[in-house]
Specification:
Distance between the termini: 80 Å
Largest sheet: none
Structural class: mainly alpha
Radius of gyration: 25 Å
Helix content: over 70%
Order of helices and strands: HHHH
Number of helices: 4
Shape: elongated
């Protein structure tokens, strides 16, 4: 295990070394939005590995989790997503209402100044 450590070796590099992975495919992206999403997937994978000490592939191959658990996880994640969407909608509504109030106050102020 000690032979796997080097200065600034990432958890992904350590995992690769343990799994016998010697190289990774590099991708060029014409769309920076796609690159950003892929970067987030890689980051989430790294965080999950750090937290659980295994990959989704490990879970599947080693039968650590069955189909029912995967479906339950998907359902829970989608339910959370709906809650985040609602919270974001309410935040947007609050911001819109605040902007209207600010505009009204600005208009009132300008009207008072023009009357003086």
């Amino acid at each position: 295990m000690e032979h796997l450590k080097k200065i600034n070796m990432s958890s992904r590099e350590i995992s690769d070394a343990k799994s016998g992975i010697t190289s990774r495919k590099e991708y060029g992206f014409r769309d920076p939005v796609v690159r950003n999403v892929v970067d987030k997937f890689v980051s989430r994978s790294d965080i999950g590995f750090e937290k659980y000490g295994s990959t989704l592939d490990d879970e599947r191959r080693l039968k650590m989790k069955g189909l029912t658990k995967y479906l339950n996880d998907i359902q829970e994640e989608l339910m959370d997503a709906v809650l985040y969407i609602q919270a974001a909608r309410e935040e947007l509504q609050d911001l819109s209402e605040e902007a209207l109030i600010d505009k009204f106050n600005d208009d009132e102020y300008e009207e008072r100044i023009s009357q003086e």
